[in-house]
Amino acid sequence: MKKFYRLILRDIHLVIKGSSDAGAALLFYLLAIIMFPLSSGTEATLLTSIAGGSIWVAALFSSLLSLDRLFRSDFEDGSLEQLVLSGMSLETIVISKCFAHWLTTGLPIVILSPVLALIIGLDFSYWWILCLTLLLGTPSLTLIGATPAALSCAIGKGGVLTALIILPLMLPVLILGSGAISAEISGLGGFGHIYALAAILPISLVAVPFLASKALRLGWE
Amino acid sequence: MDKNFLIQAQGLSFERSGRIIFSSVNLYLEEGQIIFIKGKNGSGKTSLLRCLAGFSPITGGKILWYDNEILPAFYSEEPLVAWLGHLDAIKGSLTVKDNLLFFAKIWSVKLNTLNKYIKKLSFEKFMNFPASWLSAGEKRRLSLLRLSFCPAKVWILDEPSTFLDSDNREILIDIMNTHLKNKGAIVCATHDNLKISNSLELTL
User: Are B91 and A18 an interchain contact pair (Cβ–Cβ within 8 Å)?
Assistant: First the structure.
């Protein structure tokens, strides 16, 4: 457990020192959200109806951006080998790296979202459902992206290819997340979507460490 | 004959996409022993080391660590092996100190021990530099420093003397000798003639 925290702390330290994409991903999130009113006009009724969806799309793209490098730098500089030989199971390493990734990209997105929702015209009374869906959804986004990110290390290619693999896998989270918000706005109540969204998280939490570590081992062979 | 073998590897063979890299290799390692693995470029030295550590699955034979069928890369309690390979696992954006402290902490090494080795390799003046400022040779010395305080009994070294000048080669030999004296054991692939007494040799 101690090693688990150490690794998370080191990853956060690396983000602060600027050697990861987390800061850039957050900026991207802000900019992408501003693009929506610029491209679809500033009509209040229109913006209200697309606000939830656009925040979700921006959150998805910004986590997509930083996911490609989730394991890559550790894989390429040999840190991952050293960690595995240090008496940490690869599954633990995967979980701790995902957790650090969520803390540095997912959590800031959740925290910033009420402010951004105001900017693009979502009624303030819906901030709680927006935050709740993002809080449940962003960890799933990180976890779902982890296996393709590990695979991209194994084949030595990344970037667009990783994005192409990850995007379809993330669709259910996107549909449920933005669906919850629009259902709540239309008066149907968003909890149906939220329950389904909440179910994805434990499933991916259990499955992903094994899949991603298998993919990383493939890269070592 | 009942010896305490740290590693027993029998009839190892390894092939990659149909090409046989090495076959029927036997390797026995005891406490205080060093085995040099020699061979031409491409003869499979690194592959053999990676198989021993468990990174690559062998296609034939059997590897026992401490009489058990465990491999260091799958073992999640204490470190079984210290690894020094081609990749240095140094984070350029962190300081030298943070790089060392991270491993010292996950290996539960005491700070006194760490400081002792920092002095030994005269790294004090580099401690607050970002590791990316170091030259290739200095990075190698940093890896040696990390190696020397790793609590694992077995060291697997892949070309440890690359980038090192003659003075630092002496330091490397000194570190290896100290480890052997403390009942450690080393498997080392190298092209250089590192002079260590009572060493065994395995040619691939």
Answer: no
Which residues from B are below 8 Å from A93, CB to CB? none
CATH number at residue B130: 3.40.50.300
Closest CB to A78: pick one of B16, B87, B152.
B87
| Token representation of residue B117 | 């080795």
Asked if the Cβ–Cβ distance from A78 to B50 is below 8 Å, we say no
Q: Do A220 and B106 touch (CB under 8 A)?
A: no
Say which of B82, B87, B93 has its CB closest to residue A17: B93
A67-119, pLDDT tens digit by residue?
Answer: 888 899 899 999 999 999 998 899 999 999 999 999 999 999 999 998 888 88
B88 interface with A at CB cutoff 8 Å: yes
Check B87 against A77: CB less than 8 A apart: yes
**A214 and B CB contact within 8 Å:** no
Q: Which residues of A are less than 8 Å from B76 in CB distance?
A: 87-89, 92
Check if A44 contacts B (Cβ < 8 Å): no
Question: Is the pTM of the predicted complex or chain greater than 0.95?
Answer: no
User: What does the pLDDT read at residue A101?
Assistant: 93
What residue numbers bound the domain in which B180 lies? 5-203
Domain count, chain A: 1
Q: Cα–Cα distance between B203 and B25 in angstroms, integer?
A: 10
Question: How many domains is chain B built from?
Answer: 1
Rounded Cα distance between A76 and A79, Å, is: 8
3-state DSSP of chain B:
CCCCEEEEEEEEEEEECCEEEEEEEEEEEECCCEEEEECCCCCCHHHHHHHHHCCCCCCEEEEEECCECCCHHHCCCCCCEEEECCCCCCCCCCEHHHHHHHHHHHCCCCHHHHHHHHHHCCCHHHCCCEHHHCCHHHHHHHHHHHHHCCCCCEEEEECCCCCCCHHHHHHHHHHHHHHHHCCCEEEEECCCCCCCCCEEEEEC
Nearest chain B CA: its distance from A17 CA (Å): 6
Q: How far apart are CA A37 and CA A30, in angstroms?
A: 12
Chain segment B76-103, per-residue pLDDT in tens:
888 889 999 889 889 988 999 999 999 9
| ipTM of model | 0.90
Domain span including residue A167? 2-220
Residues of chain B with pLDDT under 50: 1
